[in-house]
Each structure stands twice: as C-alpha cells, then as structure tokens.
C-alpha cells in the first residue's frame, strides 16, 4: 500500500500531510496536499502538481503517517528543466522515526548522471523493513538552482 498521507477515508493511507522545513515559492506552492495527492506532474514546470523551492541550501520535508507502519519503499519525484535553472537534487536522504524527534537513516539517493537532458526522475529506496510513523526527506539541492518535486510516497505493508 502506498501511504501518501492525505486524509482519505477508508483508503488505508496516512492521515497527515507533509510539513516542510522551508517554504515553497509562492509561484510554485504546496498548499498542504500536492506532495501527497497521487497527482504526478507533466514535463512542464508550470504544471500545478510541481512545487518548487529556490532555497540555495538544504531543506527537509517530514511526512506523518498517522500511526506506526512497516515501511518497505520510499520515493520522491523530481524535475529538471535546465533552461529555467531547475536541477535535480544533488542528493536526497530518507530517514524514519517513531516519535518525530529521533531519526534513523534509511538511505540516500545521489543524482543520476543526466547528460544535461531535461527530465523527471524518481529517487527511490527499495527493500526496506523499517517501522516508523514519521519519514523525513532531506534535500541537498544542486547549488542555488531551483528544485521541483511533485510527489512523495511511503509504501507500507
């Protein structure tokens, strides 16, 4: 089952949306549900499914699953459109926690060799067996470029 963390009665998904440690740009906002609504962005950065940050420094997004669950897979989707200075993150680190205070590293995904192409990429950790209520995604952006993400998924059993 994919816990997307939006409130959806009877879906078996988590009950709380993601919290970000740094705000999105008002031009590319996350109003509280876009990262976990199951809607994937198109190749256009203007698609409302994408939310963007131009932080110039690392930032994190925390997802509350609503209850302890066994996490099997973690993934997030990212956009690169070099002509408008949107780059894939240099690295995305995933951590899990039972209490939202003390986190354990689940793993990291480094940016793929992209050959300079505009693209959307999924940063994914597979084969996990971690019990957690909270998942923190820490993003190391590519310099001072924009980072755009459209979806965060926590797959549980």
Please provide a written account of the structure.
The protein contains no helices and 9 strands. The protein has 157 residues and is mainly β. Strands 1, 2, 3, 4, 5, 6, 7, 8 and 9 form a 9-stranded antiparallel β-sheet that branches. The protein is globular, with a radius of gyration of 15 Å. The relative contact order is 0.30. Residues 1-15 have low confidence and may be disordered.
User: What order do the helices and strands follow?
Assistant: EEEEEEEEE
Q: What's the average pLDDT?
A: 84
Helical proportion?
Answer: under 10%
Question: What's the count of strands?
Answer: 9
Structural class: mainly beta
Q: What overall geometry do the principal axes of the alpha carbons give?
A: globular
Question: Per DSSP, what share of the residues sits in E-state strands of 2 or more residues?
Answer: over 45%
Q: Please give the count of helices.
A: 0
Distance between the termini: 6 Å
Which value, in Å, is the CA radius of gyration?
15 Å
Poorly predicted regions are 1-15
Major sheet details: 9 strands, antiparallel
């Amino acid at each position: 089952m994919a816990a997307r963390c939006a409130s959806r009665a009877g879906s078996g998904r988590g009950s709380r949306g993601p919290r970000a440690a740094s705000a999105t740009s008002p031009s590319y906002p996350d109003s509280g549900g876009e990262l976990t609504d199951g809607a994937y962005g198109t190749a256009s950065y203007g698609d409302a499914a994408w939310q963007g940050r131009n932080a110039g420094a690392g930032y994190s997004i925390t997802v509350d699953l609503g209850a302890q669950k066994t996490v099997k897979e973690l993934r997030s989707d990212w956009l690169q459109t070099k002509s408008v200075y949107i780059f894939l993150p240099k690295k995305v680190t995933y951590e899990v926690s039972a209490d939202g205070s003390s986190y354990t590293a689940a793993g990291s995904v480094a940016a793929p060799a992209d050959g300079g192409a505009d693209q959307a990429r999924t940063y994914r950790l597979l084969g996990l067996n971690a019990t957690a209520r909270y998942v923190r995604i820490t993003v190391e952006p590519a310099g001072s470029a924009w980072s755009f993400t459209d979806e965060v998924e926590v797959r549980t059993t």
